[in-house]
Amino acid sequence: MLNKILCLLVALCMGLTAAAQENNEARQLLDRVADAFRQAEGVEIAFEVRAPEGTSEGRIRLKGEKFRLDTEGITTWFDGRTQWTYLENSDEVNVSEPTAEELQSINPYAWLSLYKNGYMLKMGEQADPRLHKVMMTASRQGSELQCLILYVDKQTLRPAKLSLVRKGDREAVVVLVRSYQTGQKYDDALFTFDKRAYPTAEVIDLR
C-alpha cells in the first residue's frame, strides 16, 4: 500500500500544471520561508529520513550555505565550496566540490535557492490547518530532483516535512523535522573536516 501511495505522489508531481496566480502565491510563501531561515543565523535541525532503503535519523547544523550533516555512520561537512564525507565503515574521507544539483540530494535545505529557477510552483491542498503545502516540479526531466513537496508551519514559517523524488527513483524520500533550533552560534571550523579528529582515516581527493 505504501508503494502505491508513493507512486501516486510521483505521478501527481509529474503531471502538475499551475496558473500564474498559484505560482506567485507559492513563490511568495517560499520567499518568506527562505528569508526567515536566513535571518535565524545558525540553525540546528534533528530529522528522520524515510527512504526506500530504510529509515534513519540525523542532525544538520547550518550557517548560510555551510552545513554539517551527521547521520548513522556518515558525517558530511560543507564549507560553501568543498565537501568532505567521512564513511565510518571504511574509515575514509571523500573530498569533492559538489554542484548545486548534487547538493540537493545531500542537504535537504538546498531548496532555499533551488525553487527560484527551473521549477514550477503550486500551492497544494492540506488537511492539517496548521500547515502550508507547496509543490515544486522540475521543468526539465533530467533534473536531479524531480519533485519536492514542502510542508511549512503557518505560524513559524519553519519546514515541518519534505517529500523528495529524485531522478530515476519510483519512490519518494520523506524527511520529517523532529526539532528546529535557531540562533545557534557556530564557528566556521565546524563546517570543515579536521584530520586530527580522524587520524587513521584515508583521504580520497575526488576533485
TrEMBL record:
Pfam families: LolA_2
Stored InterPro entries: LolA/LolB/LppX (IPR029046), OM_lipoprot_carrier_LolA-like (IPR004564)
Record flagged with keyword Signal: yes
Record bears the keyword Manganese: no
Keywords tagged on the record: Signal
Signal peptide: 1-19
Organism per entry: Caecibacteroides pullorum
Name under which the protein is recorded: Outer membrane lipoprotein carrier protein LolA
